[in-house]
Amino acid sequence: MTRAAVLRAPHTALQVTDITLPAPAPGQVRVKLAAAGVCHSDLSLTNGTMRVPLPAVLGHEGAGTVTEVGEGVAHLAPGDPVVLNWAPSCGTCHSCGLGEVWLCADALTGAGDVYARTADDGTALHPGLNVAAFAEETVVAANCVLPAPQGIPLTDAALLGCAVLTGYGAVHHSARVREGETVVVYGVGGVGLAAIQSARLAKAGQVIAVDVSPAKEELARQAGATDYLVASDATAKDVRRLTGGHGADVAVECVGRAATIRTAWESTRRGGRTTVVGIGGKDQQVTFNALEIFHWGRTLTGCVYGNSDPARDLPVLAEHIRAGRLDLASMVTERITLDGIPAAFDTMLAGKGGRALVVF
After folding, report:
1. What is the pLDDT of residues 19-56, one digit of tens each?
2. How many whole angstroms separate alpha carbon 193 and alpha carbon 197?
3. What is this structure's pTM?
4. Which CATH superfamily is domain 2-161+328-359 in?
């Protein structure tokens, strides 16, 4: 028996309840969670922007300790610290064959499976985004975990499962920020803070943070922002003003709204690059006219999971963390229990704070 936060229907609050987990089947492992981050993608699952079979246990950014392994799992053992990998690549599909493992066609094939049941009436539960991290314990496929980096507390390592990989990858893999370039980051949440720190790691010459909340300026500057703007109708002009009238070389959009995507694109120079990390709904339509696309010569690129390969990138991130170049703890503005997730969603919707972290 273990406690978990269950989404029973769209647009309803998560309910914390007891669930029963089966023993790991062949190829599976059981993990006791140390911490789980509350991500905007979880909110997108609750409001229907992204779909998930229901009822489901959400949560996809977490770290913990293996407590039991199923038959055939030889590379993991009880006691191993691990980071959850919600989008494991199959290695055989077309995208994986191209080396684009973040676009794996089979990454979420297990998300529709029944993995647990409620303790009260035996209702079948699905694992939201494969790993169901909003629970004290979870059972996942063995390829849904990666070795946790040595020397990093598991409560910090939880953020590596999504926010840090996504923000780092958006800067280093998608936008490919070069030394001395100017970067503007839209949205100072968990991913945005990771992107700001990553821009600093890339030795960007200027890092401008943009958010609707004036209260986030200190968070942004601590992460490495050289300038801060409160979002307005004049944001693109303000970015150009701060960049000698040219605009930024790179914009990273971490909000997922049509207006913000358009503003991010407008705030880059001729030939500038915009990478969109935020997940928007189908109703969010971004429009451009044909002449401006030609005239400005800008690029607009989607970014999934930071275009990252977790197996490749986690060791790189771990070295930055151990060397003090990347600070995970500073991204966390609230530590909560499972019962605090609905309030954390409200805080997120209000545009407040950085990352909320469920600590078990």
Report:
1. 999 999 999 999 999 999 999 999 899 988 888 899 99
2. 6
3. 0.95
4. Medium-chain alcohol dehydrogenases, catalytic domain (3.90.180.10)
